[in-house]
């Protein structure tokens, strides 16, 4: 996907209690406004028109310090949508979405956590351990190639073990 095509994807955005919620790929109807916006979106995801598997949430409060984004299918949470490398960040997070889908979400997090612990014991540095998690290695190595997901083979992360 080219950068132009990526940026041209239609988005729906709503600001709610100072936080911005965005869904790509179709119209999202917010059925109620209360503090449990995440649960509302998940509960009513079957009502999304043309939902393409990603809900983008921009929030500086939901991202741990030192991180720019976080992906838990179908949500992608980013700290700043106006970042200079926004397309690269979104591509990185989309790679994680694909990895999570291939492993049916929950096993992804189990493998991720175990791999992180093994790398932490090996390198004794949390940043080095994080960068060497098999899923992060694939995502970081291919985040600049905006067409990567078009040609990516199934379980491609195994190449980075």
Lay out the secondary structure.
Elements lengths: L2 H5 L3 E6 L2 E6 L12 H7 L11 E4 L10 E4 L2 E4 L7 H17 L3 H18 L2 H6 L2 H9 L5 H4 L10
Parallel strand pairs: 3-5
Antiparallel strand pairs: 1-2, 2-3, 4-5
Helix pairs in contact: 3-4, 3-6
Query: Helical element count?
Result: 7
Tell me the strand percentage band: 5-15%
Structural class: alpha+beta
Task: Indicate the overall shape.
Answer: globular
Cα(first) to Cα(last) distance is 26 Å
Task: Give an overview in words.
With 161 residues, the protein is an alpha+beta fold. The chain has 7 helices and 5 strands, in the order αββαβββααααα. A 5-stranded mixed sheet has the order 1-2-3-5-4, with helices on one face. A hairpin with a 2-residue loop joins β4 and β5. The radius of gyration is 16 Å and the shape is globular. It starts with a helix and ends in a 10-residue tail after the last helix.
Short descriptors:
alpha+beta, five-stranded mixed beta sheet, 7 helices, globular, disordered N terminus
